[in-house]
């Protein structure tokens, strides 16, 4: 029972990342009809927003501390972060420690601006082009963004820790009446799951209960009719592209303490997340979320040693096997709509 519970938690954690990226992919496809293979790069850029803010907050200057000496007996030089000099050691230290959560505020305008620039500068020219052209150009853009990140940040992963209060693990088993130390789970992974649930719920609420969201949903169903009503649906879809970019970026920001950012992490998640979108059903937001969590949990269980001892390497292919089975039985995916990508 403890192994099942632990793998379920691991699956929810991994599925949260899949669901968030797949949600952004589906938003873009559902509104603009574009298959955006650069979406994983947006997840990567979000992670490096956290890295950038962390580095900015730790910028420091040297001062001489007469109370300390170096190995030669001279007054020692110490580095003091500007943040600590401005706000005091205690408040400044807290700001530095909370760099990853604070990066959310930093990443939102950055990701919206990048998404807007991508849509206006490149992707709008491919709206009426075949999906194969869209895949090729956005995949090429993803490679360019990946190499830009590699140039500025290097090829090695950059550890970016969670706030001190969320380091360590808690006894999840005792919380539900199991024996002590039966199920130990990291605090930050639970934070990531609840953060993902909040973002997913916020996106659905925005689309369901706001006038802007209602117009967007109407445009997804019948773009021409909404345009004939005098609504500039193209502008609203451009804004949705920015929102989708922000969702991917926020997923990357909060994932940095779990997986140290590196220049190829976007590609690692992109292929899996695109499979999630296809399994859930192209253009279906609920399907993307459902498939994300479902495949995350299946992948987690497939990584158990007992399972791999029976079927070696199953953890590497389980998602694709499940995708094949689902698409053979339900060609449109779990919650796909008729007519989407069937022309």
Automatic annotation (TrEMBL):
<dbReference type="InterPro" id="IPR001851">
    <property type="entry name" value="ABC_transp_permease"/>
</dbReference>
<keyword id="KW-0472">Membrane</keyword>
<dbReference type="GO" id="GO:0022857">
    <property type="term" value="F:transmembrane transporter activity"/>
</dbReference>
<keyword id="KW-1003">Cell membrane</keyword>
<feature type="transmembrane region" description="Helical">
    <location>
        <begin position="191"/>
        <end position="216"/>
    </location>
</feature>
<protein>
    <submittedName>
        <fullName>High-affinity branched-chain amino acid transport system permease protein LivH</fullName>
    </submittedName>
</protein>
<feature type="transmembrane region" description="Helical">
    <location>
        <begin position="42"/>
        <end position="61"/>
    </location>
</feature>
<feature type="transmembrane region" description="Helical">
    <location>
        <begin position="15"/>
        <end position="35"/>
    </location>
</feature>
<dbReference type="InterPro" id="IPR052157">
    <property type="entry name" value="BCAA_transport_permease"/>
</dbReference>
<comment type="similarity">
    <text>Belongs to the binding-protein-dependent transport system permease family. LivHM subfamily.</text>
</comment>
<keyword id="KW-0029">Amino-acid transport</keyword>
<keyword id="KW-0813">Transport</keyword>
<dbReference type="GO" id="GO:0006865">
    <property type="term" value="P:amino acid transport"/>
</dbReference>
<dbReference type="Pfam" id="PF02653">
    <property type="entry name" value="BPD_transp_2"/>
</dbReference>
<keyword id="KW-0812">Transmembrane</keyword>
<keyword id="KW-1133">Transmembrane helix</keyword>
<feature type="transmembrane region" description="Helical">
    <location>
        <begin position="270"/>
        <end position="297"/>
    </location>
</feature>
<dbReference type="GO" id="GO:0005886">
    <property type="term" value="C:plasma membrane"/>
</dbReference>
<feature type="transmembrane region" description="Helical">
    <location>
        <begin position="95"/>
        <end position="114"/>
    </location>
</feature>
<feature type="transmembrane region" description="Helical">
    <location>
        <begin position="309"/>
        <end position="328"/>
    </location>
</feature>
<feature type="transmembrane region" description="Helical">
    <location>
        <begin position="237"/>
        <end position="258"/>
    </location>
</feature>
């Amino acid at each position: 029972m403890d192994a099942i519970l632990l793998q379920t938690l691991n699956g929810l954690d991994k599925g949260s990342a899949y669901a968030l990226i797949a949600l952004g992919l589906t938003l873009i496809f559902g509104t603009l009809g574009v298959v955006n293979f650069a979406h994983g790069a947006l997840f990567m850029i979000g992670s490096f927003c956290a890295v950038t803010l962390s580095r900015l907050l730790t910028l420091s200057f040297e001062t001489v501390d007469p109370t300390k000496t170096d190995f030669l007996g001279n007054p020692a030089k110490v580095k003091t972060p500007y943040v600590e000099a401005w706000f005091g050691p205690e408040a400044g230290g807290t700001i530095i420690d909370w760099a990853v959560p604070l990066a959310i505020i930093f990443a939102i305008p950055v990701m919206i601006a990048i998404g807007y620039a991508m849509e206006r500068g490149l992707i709008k020219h491919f709206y009426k082009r075949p999906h194969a052209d869209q895949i090729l150009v956005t995949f090429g853009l993803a490679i360019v963004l990946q190499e830009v990140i590699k140039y500025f940040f290097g090829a090695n992963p950059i550890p970016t820790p969670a706030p001190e209060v969320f380091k360590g693990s808690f006894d999840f088993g005792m919380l539900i009446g199991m024996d002590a130390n039966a199920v130990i789970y990291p605090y930050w992974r639970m934070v990531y799951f609840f953060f993902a649930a909040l973002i997913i719920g916020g996106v659905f609420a925005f689309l369901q209960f706001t006038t802007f969201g209602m117009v967007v949903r109407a445009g997804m169903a019948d773009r021409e009719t909404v345009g004939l009503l005098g609504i500039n649906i193209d502008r609203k879809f451009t804004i949705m592209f920015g929102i989708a970019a922000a969702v991917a970026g926020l997923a990357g920001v909060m994932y940095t303490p779990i997986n140290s950012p590196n220049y190829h992490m976007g590609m690692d998640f992109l292929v899996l997340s695109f499979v999630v979108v296809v399994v859930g059903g192209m253009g279906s937001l609920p399907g993307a979320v459902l498939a994300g969590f479902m495949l995350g949990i299946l992948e987690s269980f497939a990584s158990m040693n007992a399972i791999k001892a029976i079927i070696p390497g199953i953890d590497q292919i389980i998602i694709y096997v499940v995708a094949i089975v689902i698409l053979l039985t339900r060609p449109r995916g779990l919650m796909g709509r008729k007519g989407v990508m069937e022309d």
